[in-house]
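Case study 2.
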Amino acid sequence: MAERIKVPPQIAAIVADGQLTPRQKRKLLLDLGRRRQKPGTGSGLAFLGRRTAVHPWPDLRELLQGLDWLIVGGVATRAYMPERMTNDLDILVRAADGPAVLERLSQAGYEMVSTLAIPGYLLRSPEGVELDVLLGETSWLDEALGRPEHDQAGYPVIRLPYLVLLKMVAARGRDIGDLTTMLGLASVEALTEIRTTVARYTPEDRDDLETLIYLGQREMQPPKQSGS
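Prediction:
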């Protein structure tokens, strides 16, 4: 039998059984970041400004031609910050297009592995690459699908405001890290669009967004020199 995980007092004070909602989890992580963060990330500005597409993810553009889809998740972040390692490729499609997307992938040799905890499916490419097909029904989905960004490989990537919405809901540690980095690197114009999008679709998250922007911008500041 697996050992029961003890709920730390700080979490038990919020919810006794430790089952935090995504918003509670995000607020806890943000509070920790505010208390512990110091200026600077340890990475040079030249590195932080790099945008690459080194990892050879499957190119689904021809396969899914005529269907609306976007790359989300860890692979999407490379359009907005230095490319990082991730284990799978996530794409977002309309729930209504799910059967057509799965049929095309199946015909191309993709194998169905399982359903996901959120609406969607895990598949495996003929080369063994894991692909998560996420089925979306959010109020902003059509807007996002109609206005893709493109990464250095030319793949359609979800625009930053909608990626922020997704990662704020997920609220895992890696998502908070991605958010602070991307928001810290975002231009004034991009931040205006992000603030407008969050205010429109999840206004209750505006305070958390401002905290994420603050933490991200602190990351981008040069570290204080000793004696200064």
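The chain has a mean pLDDT of 87.
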